[in-house]
Structure formats: structure tokens, C-alpha cells
Design brief:
Mean pLDDT: 78
Strand order of the largest sheet: 2-3-1-4-5
Number of helices: 5
Strand content: 15-25%
Oligomer: single chain
Helix content: 40-55%
Number of strands: 5
Shape: globular
Order of helices and strands: EHEHEHEEHH
Largest sheet: 5 strands, antiparallel
Low-confidence stretches: 54-61, 130-140
Length: 140
């Protein structure tokens, strides 16, 4: 019997000035980075073609990856750390994460409040309440 997997949706926004080609390239880079982790798979979400006459901003919503995690409690912290590192210095780009209906939006801007939100979101999905993410990463 196969292990049950958890699906993490990762929606990439490249900012208002990006076009569909740039988004495709960015999503491809992030996908390759996530595949280097101990994840089951990283697939592009299936979406229909962009509506005729859609603006570039409308097309950007199609930049979604579905990450399959066999053991979220151990793998999710590494996935979040990889996404944060990928976002650093990327200006207006952001990533929206959804796991079991719980949504978190991470931007390239780092702040104390954002760190607390990320840690709280991560704790809800890993059972690691009160354990800072850097300790989880060092334990690996």
C-alpha cells in the first residue's frame, strides 16, 4: 500500500510587470529547487489556456506548483526554507502557500511579523510548536 501524501499548493506571483514567459521560467526554477528536497513530487497545476484577451497580470495566476509530501512534519520546514531563499532579493515577487485549507503568503520582504506568521503556520502543520525553524534546519 502506498504512503498517503499531503499536497502543498505553491502559487507564484511574479509581479505586475512580468509576462507569462517570465512566470513560466520562474516557476520552472523554483520547481527544480524543490525537487532537490526530499519531496515525493513537484508538479505544475493543470490549468486551461488563458482567456482570449487576458492581460499579463491575469495570466500570472497560472503559476502554481503542487508539491507532494509524504512526511510533512519533517519535509515542510525544508520546503519553506527553500522558498524563502528563492524569494530573497526578488522584489515584487511573492508565493502563496496552501496546505489543508490554511493559506500563507510569503513575500521577498523579511520582517519580524512575517517571520512569526511563517513559524506559526509551519508549527500548525508540523506539530513543532515553540521550536524555531532554524533549530529544525540545523537538526537535519
Amino acid at each position: 500500500m502506498a504512503d498517503p501524501t499531503t499536497r502543498l499548493a505553491v502559487e507564484v506571483s511574479a509581479g505586475p510587470s512580468a509576462d507569462a514567459e517570465e512566470l513560466d521560467e520562474l516557476v520552472g526554477r523554483l520547481r527544480r529547487e524543490l525537487l532537490e528536497l526530499d519531496v515525493e513530487s513537484v508538479d505544475r497545476a493543470r490549468g486551461g489556456p488563458a482567456p482570449r484577451g487576458a492581460r499579463a497580470v491575469d495570466v500570472l495566476a497560472l503559476g502554481t506548483l503542487l508539491v507532494s509530501l509524504v512526511d510533512p512534519a519533517t519535509v515542510l520546514p525544508a520546503v519553506i526554507a527553500a522558498i524563502e531563499a528563492w524569494l530573497r532579493g526578488r522584489g515584487q515577487r511573492s508565493v502563496k502557500l496552501e496546505l489543508d485549507g490554511d493559506v500563507l503568503e510569503v513575500t521577498g520582504v523579511s520582517s519580524r511579523d512575517q517571520r512569526r506568521l511563517i513559524d506559526g503556520w509551519l508549527a500548525r502543520h508540523t506539530g513543532m510548536n515553540g521550536v524555531p525553524r532554524w533549530q529544525v534546519a540545523e537538526a537535519r
